[in-house]
Design goal:
Helix content: 10-25%
Structural class: alpha+beta
Shape: globular
Number of helices: 16
Strand content: 25-35%
Number of strands: 36
């Protein structure tokens, strides 16, 4: 049976502290005995766990949680304790990290705490652990990283370590991947607060002494920030808006293979799911069954309750941000179809907008859940970035880490090194250029269309760790296809493809699946990125985005956009998106496609353009980084426009951030005479190419009307219009048109 694959972090140790006698015999009031290893690290717990070996401690509500704690060697002098602490969370269905893995941090002076989250394996997940735990395991079922339970468990145990004066309550870091990334995201969003069972937020203090606790830094890896959007996206998330709640759109489209694989892998871990109907806040089986039952979802109280629960208590994005989050380095996979890169961007944009002084950085690459390749070199690079981030903000050592966005590009075959890295101070400035394409034609997505074989080839679970699978690139019947020209020189996508179109969807249950593809000269195609949209009923202009990626279109290759009525294979575990019950025909017209690229405006003769103004749906606003951008446009210098001399023409300034400026200048003015009737006429025009950051002259040629206007005088008030291939719109200015005397030779 296919299982969810998560990023395997490369483990390492630096081997620093000398060995010493263990001065700490146990932790948690004697619940876990500690022993000293040959390198002096104190190991408290059982290391790895199985159905007969565990090291459990009752949490705040009595549920026994399987825990490991590692402490650095006893220092040569000073107190044995007050260590900075790392809380390290595991993936869905996984278990606590072992002591070998913890050497990554104990060797650099950290204490490390890792627990098997409640409901999995030996934290009441296995039958044996429930027998051993008895009634205490009655509430020990999986709650999908509920902020009030799993997250509070981690806070509780950290607080107890602080009460025992083993860790510094103000120097705590959070780390983890996938499910553990969700834990680290929630801990970072809470910062110095905890969520109570009624959903209220209180100050986080240690349980016995009342010490003030806080997360000093966090490094979530491949996390979600909105769990509903991750499992059933609706297309409402945009990477340039300040706030992107799920409720901006309708209930979305289920990621079939991934959600099925996630549900089954948790059960088989083993995991303890509550009996259907037993707890409406954690009823995974009922929720999963309702998703599979299909449309209509709108108006269903069960669906509404599930959305309300999962957003309120299981998604870090919805933790009240009245308190800024802790400094965060969030890493997300461009080829991760479960928790794609926009899960990180949603949280990042809001933080940068509402708390601009809070350090928050992003790291992207080809890693994470399927389809990701998870290349070892990228994992090593990420580990180094995480270490530097935590060292600086938690331990208080090392230099300030990079602040901004760093990205590695996807490459094929999967054995090839990733491209990059590329970096910038913000997501808004990472891609300076944009490719734009438009099609006015109306195209119809016919129900039942779309090749199942191609859908299966691109399914994340079926493809496993191979994001480079190919399929025939011919157009499919009943699918809206938009082919861009082959590129003459390599062009690198960096970010989210944006689609703006008039979409008519009369049937209530319809979906739109989008794929951006790279079509090679031999006619085969490779999936670059994708999206799922639940359009409003009726006809309206809409904007949605595909998940971000970094991808180079090689010379001779062509980008292709497909809009389909389904993105499906032949079985539950080879079907990315569940086909909609009652899918109707969907018509798409007046489509615009915008691709953010690393190349600067003016590249390839102006094929790469300056980014167009963002389309803002009603009720949204630009994220601060995008709102702060100053448009880079060519400008007319404040000098007269002249004709007749060797250096005559209109003087213009090419933007510094452009590779080239392809300018077109037109001069309009009034022409004397009864036939003209005072109307403006074209008097002169000209074209020129300037390098970026340079000033130059666009030579102008007089028209018949221009010659007439200057026949009786050498000056005329005119309007000058400057357009470029690179920018949207035009620049207009009033100038004086002067006729220069020709020098005689």
């Amino acid at each position: 049976m296919r299982r969810i694959v998560v990023l395997a972090v490369v483990l390492g140790a630096l081997g620093l502290a000398p060995s010493a006698d263990a001065a700490i015999p146990s932790v948690f009031g004697g619940a876990l005995a500690c022993s000293e290893d040959t390198d002096g690290v104190r190991e408290c717990g059982t290391g790895t766990s199985n159905t007969t070996t565990r090291s459990t401690v009752p949490t705040w509500d009595g549920v026994p949680i399987d825990i490991n704690v590692a402490l650095p060697p006893e220092p040569d002098s000073g107190p044995d304790g007050d260590f900075p602490l790392i809380i390290w969370g595991h993936g869905y269905g996984g278990f606590k990290f072992n002591f070998n893995a913890m050497r990554r941090f104990t060797d650099r002076g950290y204490a490390v705490f890792s627990m098997t989250t409640r409901g999995f394996r030996e934290s009441c997940g296995s039958a044996e652990s429930r027998t051993a735990g008895g009634a205490a395991c009655d509430d020990g079922y999986v709650r999908l990283m509920d902020t009030r339970f799993e997250v509070r468990d981690a806070q509780e145990f950290a607080g107890r370590l602080a009460d025992e004066e083993l860790i510094d309550p103000q120097r705590i870091g959070a780390l983890g991947g996938s499910y553990g990334g969700g834990l680290a995201m929630a801990l970072g969003a809470l910062n110095d607060r905890k969520m109570m069972p009624d959903g209220s937020l209180q100050a986080w203090t240690s349980p016995a002494d009342g010490d003030a606790m806080r997360i000093a830094g966090a490094a979530p890896n491949i996390p979600w920030t909105d769990l509903v959007n991750s499992l059933a996206p609706n297309g409402a998330t945009l990477d340039y808006i300040a706030d992107a709640p799920y409720t901006r759109g309708r209930f979305g489209v289920m990621k079939n293979s991934l959600t099925t694989g996630l549900y089954l892998s948790g059960q088989l871990a083993p995991g303890y799911y509550v009996t259907p109907g037993g707890d409406p806040d954690a009823d995974l089986t009922t929720w999963f069954g309702r998703l599979n039952a299909g449309e209509p979802y709108d108006g269903d109280p069960l669906v509404a309750d599930a959305v309300g629960e999962l957003t309120a208590h299981h998604s870090s994005y919805y933790i009240a941000d009245s308190t800024p989050p802790t400094p965060m380095l969030i890493s997300s996979g461009f080829t991760d179809d479960l928790f794609p890169a926009d899960e990180a961007l949603r949280f990042y944009n809001r933080t940068r907008t509402e708390h601009p002084g809070t350090p928050i950085s992003l790291f992207f690459g080809d890693f994470g859940h399927p389809r990701a390749a998870n290349k070892a070199a990228d994992a090593t690079r990420l580990r180094d970035r995480e270490n530097a981030w935590l060292d600086f903000y938690v331990e208080g050592s090392g230099g300030a880490p990079f602040q901004g966005v760093e990205a590695m590009t996807q490459t094929c075959p999967g054995t090839a090194p990733s491209g990059g890295p590329v970096s910038s101070g913000s997501w808004a400035t990472l891609a300076p250029g944009e490719i734009r394409y438009s099609s006015a034609d109306a195209k119809t997505l016919s129900p039942g269309s779309g090749s199942l074989a191609i859908g299966e080839a691109f399914d994340p679970v079926d493809s496993g760790g191979n994001p480079c699978r190919t399929a025939p690139g011919a157009d499919q019947q009943g699918v809206a296809t938009y082919r861009l020209p082959q590129v003459d020189s390599p062009i690198t996508l960096m970010g989210a493809a944006t689609v703006i179109a008039s979409i008519n969807s009369p049937a209530a249950n319809s979906q739109v699946a989008a794929r951006l593809l790279d079509v090679a000269p031999n006619g085969t195609e490779t999936l670059v990125n994708r999206a799922l949209l639940r359009p409003p009923v009726g006809s309206s202009k809409q904007v949605f985005q595909l998940h971000p990626n970094g991808w180079e279109f090689a010379a001779g290759h062509a980008p292709k956009l497909e809009l389909l009525p389904r993105d499906s294979g032949t079985s539950a575990l080879s079907t990315y998106a569940r086909p909609s019950d009652g899918q109707g025909a969907v018509t798409v017209a007046d489509l615009q496609l915008r691709l953010p690229v690393l190349q600067k405006p003016g590249y390839e003769g102006g094929y790469v353009k300056a980014p167009a103004p963002k389309v803002l749906p009603a009720g949204t606003r630009l994220a601060k980084d995008f709102a702060d951008l100053k448009p880079q446009n060519a400008r007319l210098l404040k000098r007269p426009v002249t004709v007749g001399g060797r250096r005559s023409g209109a003087r213009i300034d090419s933007p510094d951030d452009w590779r080239a400026c392809h300018a077109n200048v037109r001069v309009f003015g009034k022409v004397a005479g009864a036939s003209a009737k005072g109307k403006r006429r074209l008097l002169a025009n000209g074209k020129a190419k300037l390098a970026g950051g340079k000033r130059g002259v666009v030579k102008l040629k007089l028209t018949k009307n221009g010659r007439k206007a200057l026949r009786s005088k050498r000056r005329a008030k005119v309007q000058v219009v400057l357009k470029t291939r690179e920018q949207v719109g035009k620049v207009t200015a009033k100038r004086v048109l002067k006729k220069k005397a020709m020098k005689r030779r």
